[in-house]
Write the structure tokens for this entry.
Amino acid sequence: MTDHPIARLTTGDDEFRSKFRSWNLSDLSYVDIKEYLSVKDTILVPMASTEQHGPHLPLACDTITAVEVSRRISEQIGVLHTPPLWAGYSPQHMYGPGEGRGTITLRADTLLNLMYDVARSLIHHGFNRIIFINGHGSNIKVVDPVLRRLRYETGALISFVKPYMERYVGILDGLMENPPEETPGWHSSELETSQCMAWNPDLVRMERAVDTRAHIPEFLPKSFSKDDGMPDAEFEGYQYFSFPMDHHEFVENGIIGNPMRATPEKGFEAFRRLSEHVARGIMELEKVPVTVHDREFVGRVM
């Protein structure tokens, strides 16, 4: 990745930082982990998906967001992160058998078990604050039970962070040029294309990009309408109805929005705003007393 400078949000920790050649847990030895845990007990777990993102973006698009935001947070405030959980809950992105879309989806139980086992392993070793950095919207649909189970069983501080833009613009207000009707934060549109450009422009095939809008699935009456990738549909101007729709039923090529105004600069700025905001929040969470009451991962073979 062609990187921009990353601002450090903590000071006076040069001696601590100098002990670690990487903030990625898997790059370190157990000696390094013990050294880290003697000072800090926070760890980030980037998670997202491997799913089709239209003809011009890589399947890793959502995972790129989670990994890059986590990496920046780690460098800003000196906390570890794990390797990414690169597959998520993406049944709506499978398309038809034999179509070769490439999506790898996990069943809800599989994803929850994966998150549980990763978090319980980390808690077993001495981490008390587990921060999932999620880059894939549909994971949100299924994760509440495992987040609660981890908290109730162990007393650890468990957080699930969503650093991206769909209907909620949030901290990215004013960054995207596309108007709301061009769904700038949606699937493979201006934001995601910009972030992939910032990560690695060689992975983005803009000659394949198409300005595309969502439409109502054929199984719904024309009195309903649809503009984005949410599972709901609009009726009489309101959004009370939801349906288990597949992606190909409301957009054929995988793109929802206009990716044509994407630039690497917008991607870098989005990563900066999101990571600095989340990093400041994590610094506040590190002030909270946490008492873990059930640390050993007794059920690790079941």
Remarks:
- The longest helix spans residues 264-285.
- Helices lie at 14-17, 30-37, 61-77, 108-125, 144-154, 190-199, 264-285.
